[in-house]
C-alpha cells in the first residue's frame, strides 16, 4: 500500500490508514527522501533526539520548498495550489529565519527563552477569570443565534474564543478580529487541498498579515505597552542577540496559527467525538471533574495537529529501518496517539477517564508546544461553560472539514442545543 498524505480520500478519515501503517509499515517510505512514522515509541524517540532529528532540516526544509519536492511527480494542480497559496508565501517568507518551530539548539534554546515568559504556568492560570468572562459572553451569543434550536459551534465558540485571547495577549484591538479571521483562514486554506478559495487572495492575505505585524512591532519598539509584543521586542539586557523584525513577525504569525488553530480544532474534534460517544458526554455532565482528563483524551483521540517534520543530520535506525542522512521524517502524532502498544486494545475508542498524559498531540522534548497550557485551559473553560449552560448538545448536520495533512478540525459544526 502506498500512502499519499495529500490524498483527499485519506484526509477525510486518516485513521484506518494510520492503523494499517502501525501494523504493516510503521516506518513508511512516502517516496524520494520522505518517510512517515506511525508508532508512539518511534515518534517519542525522534522528538527527544533533536541532535539527529533536526527541526531546521525538517520543518525548516519544508519552509524552503521541501513540500513542493515531496509532491513532485504528483498532481500538478495540487502542487501549484500549495506553492501559490498563502501558506506557500508564508513558507518562502520564513525561509532562512530563526523560527521557533524550525530551529535547533542553540538558536532554539535562545528563541524559546526570549518568548516563553508569557506562557509560564503561572501566567496562563492568571488568565482563567478573563477566559470565563469571554466564554460566558460567547455562549450567550451561541444560544441567541439558534434557529429552531440549531446553531454553529465553530462560528460562535471554537473560532472566536482563541482569536480573542491571542488578540488580547498581543495587544491587538478587538475591532481587528475580522482581519485575524481572514489571515488565519488564508493560512489554513493554504494548508488544505485546493485552498478552499482564491489562491491569489490567500497570498495577499498572508502578505497583509506580515505588513500589519511589521507596523505593530515598530509601534511597540517606540512606545511599549503591557502586551506580549512589547515584551518580546524589548532588549532583555542579558547579552543575547535580539530578534530581528522578520523573526518577530514570524513569531507573531506562528503564534496566531498555533493560538487559533490548536484550540479551534481541539474544540471541534472534541464535540465530534462526543457525538460518536454520547455516554461519555453524559459522564462529563454527571462528573465535571473529569473534564481535564477528557481534554487530554480528545487531544489523543483526534489530534488537532496530525504531525510535523524532522530531518536527519546523519544516518540513523528507526523502528528497524535504516534512514539516510538528509531524509525527512513526518511524525504522525495522530497515528501514534492511537497506538495499541501505548494505550491498550481500546485505543480507537474515546474514554473520558483515560487521562493519557503521555500523548504526543503537543509533541514532546524541547519542541513541546509553547502554547499547550493555554490551549488546555481555553478548552477546559469552554467545555465546562457549555455543559453548565446547556441540557443537551446534539449533531444537527455534518461538519465541514478542511483537508490538510497537518491540521485536523472543522470549519462548520451545526449543533442542536437546549439551554439548561
Describe the structure.
The radius of gyration is 21 Å and the shape is globular. Helices cover 55% and strands 10% of the residues. α4 crosses α5 (76-84) and α12 (177-191) crosses α13 (199-222). The protein has one domain: Cytochrome p450. It has helices spanning 8-12, 15-24, 40-47, 55-71, 76-84, 86-94, 107-115, 121-125, 128-144, 153-158, 160-170, 177-191, 199-222, 228-233, 245-276, 278-286, 291-301, 333-336, 340-343, 372-389; strands spanning 27-31, 34-37, 53-54, 150-152, 308-312, 316-318, 321-323, 328-331, 390-395, 414-419. The chain contains 20 helices and ten strands. The protein is of the alpha+beta class and 420 residues long.
Please give the radius of gyration in angstroms. 21 Å
For this structure, what is the CATH class? Mainly Alpha
SSE run: HHEEHEHHHHHHEHHHHHHHHEEEEHHHEE
CATH architecture: Orthogonal Bundle
Largest sheet: 5 strands, mixed
CATH domain fold name? Cytochrome p450
| Secondary structure category | alpha+beta
Distance between the termini: 50 Å
Number of strands: 10
Principal-axes geometry comes out as globular
Total helices: the number is 20
Q: Helix amount, in percent? A: 40-55%
Main β-sheet, spatial strand arrangement: 1-2-8-5-3
**Average pLDDT metric:** 86
Uncertain stretches: 64-90
Short description:
The chain has 420 residues and is an alpha+beta fold. 55% of the residues lie in helices and 10% in strands.
Amino acid at each position: 500500500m502506498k500512502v499519499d498524505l495529500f490524498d483527499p480520500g485519506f484526509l477525510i478519515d486518516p485513521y484506518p490508514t494510520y492503523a494499517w501503517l502501525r501494523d504493516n509499515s510503521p516506518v513508511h517510505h512516502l517516496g524520494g527522501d520522505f518517510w512517515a512514522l506511525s508508532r508512539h515509541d518511534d515518534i517519542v524517540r525522534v522528538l527527544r533526539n533533536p541532535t539527529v532529528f533536526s527541526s531546521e532540516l525538517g520543518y525548516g526544509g519544508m519552509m524552503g520548498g521541501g513540500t513542493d519536492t515531496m509532491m513532485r511527480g504528483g498532481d500538478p494542480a495540487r502542487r501549484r495550489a500549495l506553492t501559490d497559496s498563502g501558506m506557500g508565501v508564508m513558507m518562502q517568507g520564513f525561509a532562512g529565519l530563526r523560527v521557533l518551530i524550525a530551529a535547533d539548539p542553540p538558536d532554539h534554546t535562545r528563541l524559546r527563552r526570549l518568548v516563553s515568559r508569557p506562557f509560564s504556568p503561572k501566567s496562563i492560570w492568571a488568565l482563567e477569570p478573563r477566559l470565563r468572562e469571554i466564554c460566558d459572553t460567547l455562549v450567550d451569543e451561541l444560544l441567541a443565534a439558534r434557529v429552531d434550536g440549531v446553531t454553529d459551534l465553530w462560528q460562535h465558540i471554537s473560532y472566536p474564543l482563541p482569536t480573542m485571547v491571542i488578540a488580547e495577549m498581543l495587544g491587538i484591538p478587538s475591532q481587528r478580529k475580522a482581519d485575524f479571521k481572514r489571515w488565519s483562514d488564508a493560512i489554513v486554506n493554504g494548508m488544505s487541498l485546493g485552498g478552499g478559495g482564491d489562491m491569489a487572495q490567500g497570498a495577499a492575505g498572508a502578505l497583509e498579515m506580515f505588513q500589519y505585524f511589521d507596523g505593530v512591532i515598530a509601534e511597540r519598539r517606540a512606545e511599549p505597552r503591557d502586551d506580549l509584543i512589547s515584551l518580546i521586542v524589548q532588549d532583555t539586557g542579558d547579552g543575547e542577540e535580539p530578534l530581528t523584525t522578520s523573526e518577530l513577525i514570524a513569531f507573531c504569525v506562528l503564534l496566531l496559527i498555533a493560538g487559533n488553530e490548536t484550540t479551534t480544532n481541539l474544540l471541534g474534534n472534541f464535540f465530534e467525538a462526543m457525538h460518536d460517544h454520547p455516554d461519555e458526554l453524559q459522564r462529563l455532565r454527571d462528573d465535571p471533574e473529569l473534564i481535564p482528563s477528557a481534554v487530554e483524551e480528545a487531544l489523543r483521540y483526534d489530534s488537532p495537529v496530525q504531525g510535523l517534520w524532522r530531518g536527519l543530520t546523519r544516518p540513523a535506525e528507526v523502528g528497524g529501518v535504516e534512514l539516510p542522512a538528509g531524509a525527512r521524517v513526518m511524525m504522525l502524532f495522530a497515528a501514534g496517539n492511537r497506538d495499541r502498544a501505548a494505550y491498550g486494545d481500546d485505543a480507537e475508542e474515546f474514554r473520558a477517564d483515560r487521562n493519557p498524559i503521555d500523548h504526543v498531540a503537543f509533541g514532546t522534548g524541547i519542541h513541546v508546544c509553547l502554547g499547550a497550557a493555554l490551549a488546555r485551559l481555553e478548552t477546559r473553560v469552554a467545555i465546562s461553560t457549555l455543559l453548565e449552560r446547556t441540557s443537551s448538545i446534539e449533531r444537527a448536520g455534518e461538519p465541514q472539514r478542511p483537508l490538510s495533512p497537518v491540521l485536523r478540525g472543522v470549519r462548520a459544526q451545526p449543533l442542536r442545543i437546549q439551554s439548561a
